[in-house]
Design brief:
CATH class of the largest domain: Mainly Beta
Number of domains: 4
CATH topology of the largest domain: Elongation Factor Tu (Ef-tu), domain 3
Strand content: over 45%
Helix content: under 10%
Strand order of the largest sheet: 1-23-26-25-24-27
Distance between the termini: 35 Å
Low-confidence stretches: 1-18
CATH superfamily of the largest domain: Efflux pump adaptor protein, beta barrel domain
CATH architecture of the largest domain: Beta Barrel
Length: about 350
């Protein structure tokens, strides 16, 4: 009897033995594989100072990925914060274009004197001043207004004094002395009192944190604000620690300590747990026993007692074969709710057609 005819008769006999409405049970060897990966990108740029994850590790929503260094802006001089125009989330360049600076410092030395040696005592010593030396000041009208100052600039016969103490009147003329006794032989010249300008403080990038408030007195070198590279899109950042926006398995880590990242760069890719699937190979002669949409049972190899049976659904059976040992084989994928112990590459026995 021809082989094909014999196989047909055997198949017909099996169908007669199978109860109506029942589907023959069939098993497949499967492997846990990843679905589509999700990229986690940098919300702003900077230099990576620390990394908290590794490729292959599991990460949860909100877990730390890495920390990016910020650019810290310090007070160039002592003074009082005034004109605090920048806020967290603002682009420094935009604020600077509009207001001239992120903030201003009103100096403790509130008077500046533009002076010259033209009225100095006629000696070589009094016709030469040095930046940084302390001088003593008195108004020329009646000597009632006095102050102490420091020479902050000198060019040719002109020099500048900023007061460190005392009270003067705006626009009044004052004499400047090297001696606290204000004796004429120590007179270095005279000048006109004006208001000391506020010091503008700016930077670059986007403001991450502001560490001072309007009206606060600060010392030279005190931290004023921190910035990061790239725009924050008008949003407030919670800090320079970057956290994951997705849960799953870290497929690839692109961040490393010391590396520079820009806004939008991919820090890592994650396989979400809900996207995990079981991949099986279906021989062409088994295609009649399994179909897309079928409910199947999954038993993990690690669970020797099969204490936990997971239900899955056949999402897709490929229409393109991959030849294995000369036989046509079709890849199929089963979606399921992964138990906590599930890892990529685990082996699974998939049972189909067990329903009555």
């Amino acid at each position: 009897m021809p082989t094909k005819k014999l196989l047909s008769l055997l198949a017909a006999g099996l169908l007669l033995l199978t109860p109506l409405g029942a589907q023959a049970e069939i098993t497949f060897d499967g492997t846990v594989v990843a679905g589509d990966a999700v990229s986690v990108t940098a919300p702003f740029g900077g230099t990576v100072s620390s990394v908290s994850v590794k490729a292959g590790s599991e990460i949860a929503l909100g877990d730390a990925i890495c920390v990016l260094e910020t650019t810290k802006v310090y007070a160039p001089t002592a003074g009082t914060v005034c004109g605090l125009f920048g806020q967290p989330g603002d682009a420094v360049e935009t604020i600077t274009q509009r207001y001239g600076a992120v903030l201003y410092l009103s100096p403790a030395e509130k008077y500046t004197i533009s002076a010259s040696i033209n009225k100095a005592y006629n000696s070589s010593e009094t016709r030469y001043v040095t930046i940084g030396e302390t001088v003593y000041i008195s108004c020329t009208a009646d000597g009632k207004h006095t102050a102490t100052g420091v020479i902050t600039g000198a060019e040719g016969t002109n020099y500048t004094v900023e007061t460190t103490s005392g009270e003067l009147l705006m626009e009044e003329t004052v004499a400047i002395y090297r001696s606290a006794d204000l004796d004429s032989e120590s007179r270095l010249g005279q000048g006109t009192v004006s208001r000391t300008a506020e010091t503008p403080v700016t930077g670059s990038g986007s403001i991450l944190r502001i560490h001072v408030s309007e009206g606060e007195q600060v010392e030279r070198g005190q931290l004023l604000f921190e910035t990061v590279t790239g725009g924050l899109d008008g949003l407030y950042a919670t800090g320079n620690e970057i956290v994951s926006q997705v849960s799953g398995i870290v497929a690839q880590l692109n961040a490393s300590v010391g590396a520079t990242v820009n806004k939008g760069d991919t820090l890592l890719t994650v396989y979400p747990r809900e996207n995990l699937q079981v991949e099986i190979s279906v021989n062409e002669y088994d295609l009649a026993e399994i179909a897309q949409g079928d409910t199947v049972q999954l038993n993990f190899t690690w669970d020797e007692d099969a204490a936990e049976t997971v239900t899955g659904t056949v999402d897709m059976i490929s229409h393109v074969s991959s030849s294995e040992s000369g036989e046509a084989v079709y890849k199929a994928y089963v979606s399921f709710d992964p138990p906590d112990q599930t890892r990529l590459g685990m082996t699974v026995m998939v049972t189909a057609g067990s329903q009555e």
